């Protein structure tokens, strides 16, 4: 009986195909496994964060005179009426845009840390542009919002340009530019563009015909939510279905391979940073046109970082940014309502957000869930 030849170990690069189906089926299995692993790691982060939340609430209730009331208003309070529920959805809108902005930059291999200043400056530019364009109605509002988005995008693109031109770190440049713009806008809001007829440190209000219509009155939820959902779909289709989106993903995965493949990685870096900043600026402009109707001094404090945290929890997936943003909005709203109706402090929400941020950036959790997946 003729024996089959043994594999030649002298050529390790020539591997014998193992059982398990054709290569295409095996590739699909690997993709499904990777997707499952990513989903389980993100779900694990949410579960551990909720456990941390329960522990913090329990500690707060020990010091609280009304622990049952505290728990009720923290978890149920945001959903008890249309006003509270609508405000949860409304507070998630800038986080959705921020998460999308971070996701686009990360897919192209960059990280934009200038969200705070980009939201703030985008809102300010949109406001001062809208003041003289009230007579144009819808067109004036659209021009103003796009102007704010373009200005914020240009700020982020400057960091991208410095990266490709002089190899500077975009994390540092975007962060420093953001801090500088916050100080500049503070001066403009409280100085040359301050509204003398209000006690607030803010600009004048935009005209009523430019404001976005409300969806769930008496809450502040407005049509910006619909725009946010459209933006999520647009970013998802852009990254997954277009040639430029494919180039972004290839450049972010392996820049050297992308360059050898003929992809202009320098252009993609600048463009990705511009789109990232533009989405942040869009968040600021829509916040003005839908909720505040003016630029209030430092109204956007914390929104940039919370958008980054939402993107981290979502794993930089555009579709997952929506539930991640709603999760952060629920925590903030629950803490605020519990503070108003019991004797706990609002800082508990900040602590929980810090825990989530730490868990989302921790490779220990990802390695833990990755090892569990390999054992399956």
Task: Write structural notes for this entry.
- There is one protein chain.
- The model is unreliable at 7-40 and 371-375 (pLDDT under 50).
- Helix 3 runs parallel beside helix 7 (224-241).
- The longest helix has 41 residues, at 23-63.
- The chain is globular and about 65 Å long.
- It is built from 14 helices and no strands.
- 46% of the residues are buried.
- With 376 residues, it is mainly α.
- The protein has one domain: Orthogonal Bundle (ABC transporter involved in vitamin B12 uptake, BtuC).
Total domain modules: 1
Count of DSSP helices?
14
Give the % helix: over 70%
CATH class equals Mainly Alpha
Features:
376 residues; mainly alpha; ABC transporter involved in vitamin B12 uptake, BtuC; 14 helices; globular
Topology:
Blueprint: H1 23-63, H2 67-75, H3 82-107, H4 115-130, H5 138-166, H6 170-190, H7 224-241, H8 243-253, H9 255-260, H10 265-292, H11 303-313, H12 321-341, H13 347-361, H14 363-375
Write a brief structural summary.
The protein has 376 residues and is mainly α. The protein has 14 helices and no strands. Helix 2 packs antiparallel against helix 12 (321-341), helix 3 (82-107) packs across helix 11 (303-313) and helix 11 (303-313) crosses helix 13 (347-361).
């Amino acid at each position: 009986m003729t024996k089959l030849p043994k594999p030649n170990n002298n050529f390790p690069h020539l591997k014998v195909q193992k059982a398990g189906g054709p290569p295409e089926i095996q590739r699909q299995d690997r993709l499904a496994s990777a997707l499952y692993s990513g989903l389980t790691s993100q779900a694990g982060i949410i579960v551990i964060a909720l456990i941390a939340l329960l522990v913090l609430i329990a500690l707060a209730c020990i010091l609280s005179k009304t622990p049952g009331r505290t728990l009720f208003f923290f978890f149920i309070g945001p959903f008890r009426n249309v006003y509270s529920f609508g405000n949860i959805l409304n507070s998630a809108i800038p986080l959705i845009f921020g998460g999308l902005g971070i996701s686009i930059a990360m897919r192209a291999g960059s990280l934009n840390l200038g969200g705070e200043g980009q939201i703030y400056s985008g809102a300010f530019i949109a406001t001062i542009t809208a003041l003289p364009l009230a007579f144009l109605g819808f067109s004036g509002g659209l021009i103003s919002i796009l102007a704010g988005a373009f200005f914020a995008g240009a700020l982020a693109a400057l960091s991208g340009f410095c990266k490709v031109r002089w190899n500077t770190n975009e994390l540092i440049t975007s962060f420093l530019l953001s801090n500088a713009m916050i100080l500049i806008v503070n001066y403009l809001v409280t100085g040359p563009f301050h509204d003398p007829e209000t006690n607030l440190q803010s600009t004048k209000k935009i005209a009523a015909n430019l404001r976005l219509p409300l969806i769930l009155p008496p809450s502040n939820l407005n049509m910006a939510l619909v725009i946010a959902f459209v933006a999520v779909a647009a970013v998802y289709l852009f990254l997954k279905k277009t040639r430029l989106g494919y180039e972004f993903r290839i450049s972010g995965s392996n820049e050297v391979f992308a360059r050898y493949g003929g992809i202009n990685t320098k252009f993609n870096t600048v463009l990705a940073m511009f789109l990232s900043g533009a989405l942040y600026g869009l968040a600021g402009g829509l916040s003005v046109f839908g909720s505040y109707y003016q630029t209030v001094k430092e109204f956007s404090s914390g929104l940039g970082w919370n958008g980054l945290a939402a993107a981290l929890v979502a794993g930089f997936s555009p579709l997952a940014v929506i539930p991640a943003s709603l999760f952060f909005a629920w925590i903030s709203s629950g803490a605020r309502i519990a503070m108003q109706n019991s004797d706990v402090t609002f800082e508990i929400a900040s602590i929980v957000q810090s825990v989530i941020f730490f868990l989302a950036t921790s490779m220990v959790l990802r390695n833990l869930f990755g090892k569990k997946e390999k054992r399956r």
